[in-house]
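User: quick one, sequence for these tokens?
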């Protein structure tokens, strides 16, 4: 039985949604980290960054679920799956900390960097690294053997 995360109009959802994860989540994470340390940037862009982190985190969840559905058809690239699973949970923790940090900043309007700001930074760096690792291992699983075959065909 297929799940809601399996296909959309006959195409697997996973390759469609991962592009949202690898673009929106890192940009929103990076801008949120900048917001912690730059009061001028924080005033103009922190709300948009929080929304971006929400969208990226939701996309990571959908990518995880759709990846599991896709693996039923094409197999499971273990490293990619492991990084994707970890990313989903770290992104969720990051989103929660971002919400707490943003709420505290909105109440106090303080420019001091507090413990939430430091935790946000550490989790944000973890999100950036895990997004890279999940994306790289996923692309490698899809393209590594195909590129070798394409290059061999061109050379011969």
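Assistant:
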């Amino acid at each position: 039985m297929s799940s809601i995360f399996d296909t959309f109009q006959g195409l697997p959802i996973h390759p469609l949604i991962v592009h949202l994860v690898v673009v929106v989540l890192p940009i929103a994470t990076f801008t949120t980290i900048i917001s912690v340390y730059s009061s001028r940037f924080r005033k103009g862009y922190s709300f948009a960054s929080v929304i971006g982190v929400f969208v990226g985190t939701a996309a990571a969840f959908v990518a995880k679920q759709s990846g599991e559905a896709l693996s039923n058809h094409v197999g499971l690239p273990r490293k990619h799956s492991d990084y994707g699973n970890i990313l989903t949970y770290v992104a969720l923790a990051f989103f929660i900390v971002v919400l707490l940090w943003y709420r505290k900043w909105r109440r106090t309007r303080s420019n001091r960097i507090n413990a939430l700001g430091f935790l946000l930074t550490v989790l944000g760096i973890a999100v950036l690294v895990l997004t890279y690792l999940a994306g790289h291992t996923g692309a490698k699983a899809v393209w590594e053997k195909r590129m070798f075959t394409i290059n061999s065909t061109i050379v011969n």
